[in-house]
Design brief:
The chain is mostly beta strands and 187 residues long. The chain has no helices and 17 strands. The mean pLDDT is 96.
Length: 187
């Protein structure tokens, strides 16, 4: 979290409620960030007071929440679980599932609440990550793909991990310096 004193998590509580909590890095008791917004599945901090939330439901919704007021605004329905702040513009990026077979990656201007399509996703690919220099990464099967909005027109294969036994890359993350990538995959 901003300020470097806490980290935030989605916590499954004893009654199975999923809410956003923060934990102090130096130890101590956790506290709720948003008491009345549930069930939260994923989140991304946009600034010290604004959160993007993937709120579970039928359909799942993208909500922008203000931690000062505890209130949230529904921005979009039928979204994917990946929510990321654009590394160069500070906007929010997310997957919008237009239908079962058509998904697009969108960018939302936080101030105007207007969104635009950046690119279609690869079929069934709902997880992505940004490199610090503004290149998108996504997995499909055992392969990693990239899309540089400044010069690419479509996804480009970046690496093939199939020979290593990776079969279905789902979640992925890029280190803040962009020198490491973490992948989650079935074997």
């Amino acid at each position: 979290m901003s300020g470097g004193k806490f980290f935030s998590v989605i916590r499954v509580e004893a009654d199975q409620t999923q809410r956003l909590w923060k934990f102090p890095l130096d130890g101590g008791n956790p506290s709720l960030v948003l008491e009345n917004i549930k069930p939260v599945g994923y989140h991304a901090w946009l600034d010290e007071n604004t959160l993007a939330l993937f709120v579970l439901g039928r359909p799942a919704t993208l909500q922008l929440a203000d931690v000062r007021t505890g209130k949230a605004e529904i921005i979009e329905s039928n979204i994917g679980r990946s929510l990321h702040k654009h590394p160069l513009r500070g906007s929010l990026t997310y997957i919008h599932k237009l239908s079962d077979s058509e998904w697009v990656l969108k960018e939302l201007d936080i101030k105007t609440r207007k969104s635009r399509v950046l690119i279609k996703t690869m079929a069934g690919s709902e997880d992505f990550a940004w490199t610090p220099d503004g290149v998108l990464l996504a997995g499909k099967g055992g392969k990693l793909f990239k899309f540089d909005p400044a010069k690419d027109h479509d996804w480009q294969e970046a690496a093939d991990f199939s020979a290593s036994g990776l079969k279905s890359i789902t979640r992925l993350a890029v280190s803040p310096r962009g020198d490491k990538i973490a992948l989650v995959s079935t074997l």
